[in-house]
Amino acid sequence: MKWPIFVQDRKGRIIYLTQERWEHALAHPGMHDGLLEQVMESVRQGKRKQDIYDPAKFKYIYSFSNLPMGYTDIVIVVKFSWQLEANNFILTAYLVKRW
Prior knowledge:
Number of domains: 1
Order of helices and strands: EEHHEEEE
Radius of gyration: 13 Å
Number of helices: 2
Distance between the termini: 35 Å
Largest sheet: 4 strands, antiparallel
Shape: globular
């Protein structure tokens, strides 16, 4: 696989995932390499909510019916920044259970 991986969210913002950040995400319970496409789909289609403590961070959340260990959603944390151009990258991804 060639890193970084780029994806667009529903509003056309370009976001990327590095191998180092993917390896970080894999350390979370239930996460595994087979979920990479679902992580990207979560950014493409997920609901986006701004972090209350850091206005440059946003969480994307999307539901899937086939996640491991009873998890229901994937949460993707994205940091948005500008230097000379947009620098929007995935910080981490993790699984959650919604009731």
